[in-house]
Amino acid sequence: MKTIEEIFEILKAKFGDSILELKTDQPVEPFIIADPLEIDKICFFLRDEEGLLFDSLMNLSGVDDANGESKNDESGALNIIGGTLSVYYHIESTKILHKLCLKVSTQRENPEVASVFNVWRHADWQEREAYDLIGIKFLNHPDLRRILMPYDWEAGHPLRKDYKNPEFYQGMKVPY
Amino acid sequence: MPVEIEENIKTKSGNLRTEEMILNMGPQHPSTHGVLRLELQLEGEVITKVIPHIGYLHRCFEKHAEAMTYPQVIPYTDRIDYLASMGNEFGYAVAVEKLLGIEIPERVEYIRVIMAELQRIASHLVALGTYGADIGAFTPFLFCFRDREKILNLFEITCGARLLYNYIWVGGLSHDLHPDFVRLAKEFTSYFKPKIKELNDLLSYNRIFTERTANVGILPVETAINFGVTGPMLRGSGLKWDLRKNDPYSVYNKFDFDIPVGQGLMGTVGDSWDRYFVRVLEMSESLKIIEQALEQLPEGDVTSAIPKRVKPPVGQVYARIENPRGELGYFIISNGTPNPFRVKVRGPSFVNLGVMDELCRGHMVADIITILGSVDIVLGEVDR
Amino acid sequence: MIYDFFLKLFGNDVLAMLVSSLIPLFILVLPFTLVAVWLERKVSAHMQDRLGPMRVGWHGWLQTIADLIKLIQKEDIVATDNDKPLFNLAPILVFAGSYAAFAVIPLSSIFIGSNIDLGIFFIIGISGLVVAGILMAGWSSNNKYSLLGAMRSAAQIVSYEIPTILVVLTMVMITGTMNLRTLSEMQTGYFWNWMIFGGPDFGVAKFIFIPLMIAGFIIIYISTLAEVNRTPFDIPEAESELVSGYHTEYSGMKFAMFFLAEYANMFAVSVVVVALFLGGYQSPFGYLGNLFNAHWLIPIEQFFWFVAKGVFFVFVQMWLRWTLPRLRVDQLMALCWKYLIPIAFVNLLIVGIITVL
Asked: Which of A139, A172, C19, C57 is 20 to 30 A from residue C39's alpha carbon, by CA?
């Protein structure tokens, strides 16, 4: 079982600049921040390396950090410009029984993160959900389309903090 | 309609392959356990691809959770997996208590364990009963529901509700146990033990049932771990992985119970019969836990540790529990305000459903029902 | 003989024929169908630890009539794309095929609808009408599910006719006649003269026949269970898989016809099995009429025994339905072609050899 500091050292030695920092000051769990476009290589390494063997993705969540500049437009609704969107990966090893949390952050306009579809197939539907609800595009995902919202939902990504409900959807009034 | 389906149709007529048919097991169907749409691409009777379409029951739980305070979210967590509500509340309470860093009284922990295990038995009874009904055996369905009524009576005298409880709160419970609860629960455990044997005689070892379910939908262990499958599905494939033992939470480390695994008694390891039988065996293990917990139940005040105002520090937590369907995880990010910043629910049925395509390839249409029943999904958890 | 009675009453042979042929229909089959629906609901309820219909009449025996009235007054939905002539004709064919089998079944020693020498052959032939009706229903419903259900049902019925015919051939070889009335007459006496116990001729052959007859009885019971689409063979109407199969699109009176035809079919096949193997209308213990020297009582007793045996086997069919899960299509076909047909053939061979010797 490795502690998060040891894993951080191993990753830093292998990937250098792609591993950005280790954040341990907040409760409850510490996490490692990494580069969004290199995350798939990092995850391949984490899954296959002897001594790490992270063969199971527990959770993948997209988060709207809402840390940009927020201003209200003419109708009083919130608009957020700039800032980041993040994806958190929680992974564990069923053989060595240790866990790890990774975070990647990408810019709010045109967010792109490398997909870990080929590392763990679990990411297939989780990434589709992150795309659907937060709007993060996962590169190299074979079938990135909406999963929970209707396939032709035009009005944006619902879990963003500045999401507004549309007036009409296919002729039906939305807020009732 | 997704683009790839239309392309498929075009190439089929272009290549003069006229045998492939697209059949829709629509959102309203007696056997899909909820509003699930399965698009089947068939060649005759054999399936080439299964595409599940979900989202018909999406109720925006995660968006609602951002607008309410931490204790107000609990009734909403009930409705994620409406057949195992105690489990959902338990997971959320464990997550928020970890974030707050508070200690809760032992009596609360024991009662939570008893409720969670009773809920596990009730949920497995629904799963097994409806599985039998899908295969065609109508009688075990009613026997299972008759036994489940007794469990729901126990829940009703505790918190007043039969299905959606709002009972396990952050830091404690909403009510203490009814004075008759321990006696009635002990009566239930002695009533239920022979019923498991009756279910086995009627359904599990029935020749027609085993012919229908053995060697159908075989899930190898490596595929299961890669797809993130957890719960009885993973244990049915042979891996002894249970969060109550591998990553203990609450007071599970004080009880003595076993983890049943699929051993391929009727076919290969990891087929539908194994997944079904793991659930049957889990019910008897849960009975053991309930009996031990009822013996060891300490005294105490269940509402003493409930905080007046839940305002966790800035941080995040990922806490998970063993739901009857698998690993239920709550990822909560707090930004110091009384409302959560982000609550992500890792629903086990959502993840387990992703493996349907792999399981169903090469089987026949009638086997889809068998496989879907053994995956045991609840659409509330898939769609949230 | 009832025909002669009516002939004397009316003096007109057409009228007498009409009345005497409608009698089995109205006295036996239709009331039986109504009772069978109620019986099924009560049997299934008690097997599942609940009560079933209790309010409509004493313990719910009027429930079937209430359901029929409801079905009659429902809207008759015919979708635009359906093939209307086929759609309307299909339930009539299925209904007629099921009820026509009763024409040659002897209800008691004085009454048989039509005393033709080809009794059993006629019944097997008429069952073909049912297959045609089912296929028409599935096709004209313009629904992929119904078509799948109808094709499966047709395949199932046609395959399971073969073991049925083989066992019937066995019986015909032993008794030398296809006329159901003569078959029943041959099994007079007490119950050890029944075919299942080797037949009326006492001798070594009788005892050798007993296991063969029992095997034949089991084969024909399973095959006829499959012919009427009952669980464990009810894939065509499996509601958890194909939402009612070939009769999904029917509503109102047409659905009622399918429904009633199913129960009449169940009764018909169980009565045929009884007539072949268990003595038809003969009593197992001798007649009270003989005891009291009241010979007019005997036909009534025979009718009673006939109905009792038929109802008992219908009850066993219901019992099997509510206990066993259903077989998948390929397992069903495998059971028929790989197991029942070889066993029936071997049975036929052995019985043939013994009969010749």
From this structure: C19
